[in-house]
Structures are given as C-alpha cells and as structure tokens.
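The data are set out underneath:

___
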Amino acid sequence: MRQFFISLLGSIVGFFVAMFLMLILFFGIIGAVGNSMNAKANKTEGPTVLTLDLRNAMLDHGGNNGLFSSDSASLVTIVRSLEKAKNDDNVKGLFIRANSYGMSSQQAEELRLSILDFKSSGKFVIAHAQGFESPSLSSYIAVSAADNIWLQDTTNFALAGYRAEVEFLGGVFEKFDAEAEFIQFHEYKNAVNSYTKKGFTAPHREAMTALLQSLMDTSVGYISTDRHMNEADVHAFLKDAPHSAEQAIGTGFIDRLGHYADARQYAKAKAGGDASFQSISDYGFDIGSGPVIAFIGGQGAVLEGNSSDGSNPFSNNVSMGGDTISEAFIKAANDDKVKAIVFRVSSPGGSPTASDQIWDAVNKAKKAGKPVVVSMGQYAASGGYYVAANADKIVAMPTTITGSIGVFGGKFFLKDTFAKVGYNVESINLGGEYGAVYSAFEPWSQGNKAAYKGVLQNIYDDFTTRVADGRNIPIERVREIAKGRVWTGEQAIEIGLVDYLGGYSEAVEVAKQLAGIDADTSVRIKKFPRDLSPTEQLEQLFNVTADAGANLQALQTFAQSPEFQALVRAQATLNTRNTELRAQLPNIE
C-alpha cells in the first residue's frame, strides 16, 4: 500500500511538472502577444475617461508585470499614467471609485498631488464613494481635490481624524513566566516597548502624539484648501462625527448624492456622449525619451539576499533585498546613458547588514558620477532611512513616516514558560560564554548583556555616523534627533533629514536638476533591475528542471523525517534572534 501511494504521488507530481513546462511555453507566447496588445491598449481612440479603483490595496511601485498580477496599479504607476494622460487630448477626465475604509495617508497624499497636476491641464476629475465608513481622513484626502465627489445617499460619512493603536505584550509574557530581554538605542525606539511594557512610556506617547498631530494638521489643511473651507470649520465638523450623507453634502464635503451608475453616467456625459471608459491599468505610461534617469525601487522590509515583489502567487511577501538593490545600483552606475538615479524607498527597515550594503551601493553610484535622489513612499524609517541617508537629495511627502534612527535587539527567555508543561532543554557550551547569548533557555549573564549591548552600540554609532556624513549634519545634532524617534516628512524637513516635500514626480525633477538636464527637457525612465519576462518569472517561481519529479518526491520523503522536523523547530528559535534597524509603525486609523 505504501508503494502504491508513493507511485500515485509520483504520477501527480509528474503531471504538474508537465503542466508547468507547458505553461512556460504558453506564457512565453502570451507574453509576446501581450506586448502588442498593451501597445494597442495604451492608445486612446476618441474621447476617453480613465477609471481608477482605489478600493483595493496597492503596492508603492512595480507589481504590474507579474504572471498573476491583479488589475490594481501601483502608486507610482498611477502617477506616471496620469502624467501621460495630462497631455493626451483624447483623455477628457478621470473617474475614481473611492476607498471607503481607509488607506495609507502618504498614498492618499501623493494621489491627491497627482490629481491636482492632472486637473491643471483642464481635465475633470469625478469621484464616487459608496460611503466613507472609516473615521480615518486618508480615503477622503485621496479624492478631496476632485471636481465632484459623489456619495451613495444611504451610507455614512464617518470622517473623524486619526487614531493609533499599539499593542503591549508585557503583561502577557508576565503571566506565562516569559521574560523579554531586549536592548534599545534609545528611548524612542518604541518597537521594544511592545514586548517589555504594559503601556506607553512618556517618550513613546510623546512621539506618537506628535506624529498623529502632524498627520492631522496636514490633512485638515488639504481638506480646507480643496473644499474651500475654513480649517476651524473642518475641525468642528470632524469632532461631531459621524454624519449622514445629507449632512455631508450640506457642509461642502460632498457635492452630489447618488449611486455609482449615476456618477459614471455623469462622467460620460461630461466627456461627451460617445466617450468610452478605460482603466488606468490598461492605459499605461510612457517610458519617455531623451536623457536617461534610472529608477530603482525598494519596498518592504530590508533583508539580506534578493528582493521579493509580491508576484509569487504562493506568497504575498514584498521585501527590499540587499543583493538585488546593490546590483541594480552597480548596473545603473556602469550604464553610460544613465545621467541620474531616482531611488524609491518605502520600508520600515530591517537588517543592519543589508541596509549598509545598500548604503554602500548608493555611495559607489555617487562616486561614479551619478547623482542619487531618494523618493520616500509611505515610510522610509530606521533601515529605510539608513539606505536613503547617503543620497544627494531626499524627497518625501509631508505624511511620509521617516527617521527612527536607532536599533534594537534581544530575545525571549522561555525556560520557565516551557517548564509549566514539563518541557526542558539542557545545554553544553564549549568556548566563550557568548555562545549562549541568543539561547531561549538561558538568561543573559551580566557579561553577555554587556557584550550584546556593545554590538548594538557599534551599529547605532555606525548608523548615526552614516547620517551625519550623508546629510552633512554635525554628529552631535544627529544624536539629538535620532534616539529611534519617528518623524513625518513635514517634521523631517525642519530638522534636516529631508530636503524637499513632494512625490515621485518631484524626485525626477530634482534628479534632472542635479544631472544638468533642462527642466523642459523630456527624459526616459529606465528601470533597474529590468522586469523579468513571463518565461523567466515562471522559471524563477517553480525552478523547473528535467528531473523535477524525482527531486520533489525525494523532498516529500525528506520533509517527513525526524531530522527535518528538528531543523524546522531550530529555525523557529533562530528567528527570534533579532538585531533590527526597524521602526514600529502603529496601526493608524
């Protein structure tokens, strides 16, 4: 019977391997066809209204070339597409389906900026929401600059402000006799507090309050400008939330009440009765012509190795890999046609090693004569700021979360926890005492704690030195504004961590200026690394080889072995060994 199931498994594996090989050919064919189709789709014929659906989460950049990509465009793709549409005489306007439940404040802010630029060419923007159900202001900010905002009349207008919730697990660990042994540099490096505290420390509360206040002030300013209101009136309206749809239209937040179909028909009539609708994802963008500016994108946690772009259907992981980004910088630096580099960063940080690897790649590109401009996305904090610190110029949106110049690390001591169920681990240590520094079954000795603190001190010193050198700020001043504290872009420009406020488009203009390219000159944007073809993506995803069936069957057998299961348990323990340049980003609603 056992042999029967092994044979059956082999047949099933063989079938799927054959299917994967066929898919390689299939996607290779449709990739070529798709290129020609996209070229056709990117051309508008007659009056056109572009459509943009903000109801689904979007990546900061990329993600549109994957085998299994959704129709949702990334933020940078939308910005570039609207830049193209601004000068397309066939495009008469933009119709947006608003997000009802909340989105990143920075994404909303950069969308707003792009919409304003699109409108400057005389084109209209109409937005429809089936309610603004989230109290957060972000979803509304994304469309507040629209000419007409429609709201379904049976829904709510719940805008109230911003709220941040931070979990504290100190009391939980205490109940289970678990001890969190962590060291932070310094008091504002608040990620540690979630493990060691039961509530806010004074510095933690101070930083979070200031962050939310900055977001609130910026957002209210946008609303008052876009809707021609007094800021005091906006604040009063928000404090009285929630409101009905009728109340929202009565105060100027909403222009019309009606269903989606009605708003869509209104947009079509405004563009001309024979106008057609086209998704902004299908419309695409121009790579441009003229002098070349390289685009290098890094988003998600900073990790050693290769980046992940979220295109793997078995994992939605998105990360900034040290190897991928540094190689991209090397290739861009060696390309004689590249005049400058725009480095888009949207990351809460991560590995100190990978962060410094990317910092070094930026440095080498600068030495090769390529100006580097960082464009900050939703966040560029901790390791995300480390990789940006050496750029010639840094551009951030006012609500970008940045800074968090600090480091933390530690472990959980779980021996007493496991003892509750009779589980015990004993060890034999040869060599230095430091061999036990990451053990979950032995608390830190005074010597190990001091030694580990010294490791973190070195990382913190390197980090602050990198910032001081890259930003040309005295090290004493850097250490005053560091300490692990997060800042918004609006705050960061005041303390010297950021040079300009703006989005991707502003970063391109700054790069042109540094490269000596006239402001009116068109440029070509070249992506590093290039997008993989469908065939290359499939090969990378499944790593299909001629003997894949045999390898998969062997792997199945190996995975059930006691040795492999022990390895899995060991890896789970290793994953608790954290030395992180990572910012705590609370759930802001």
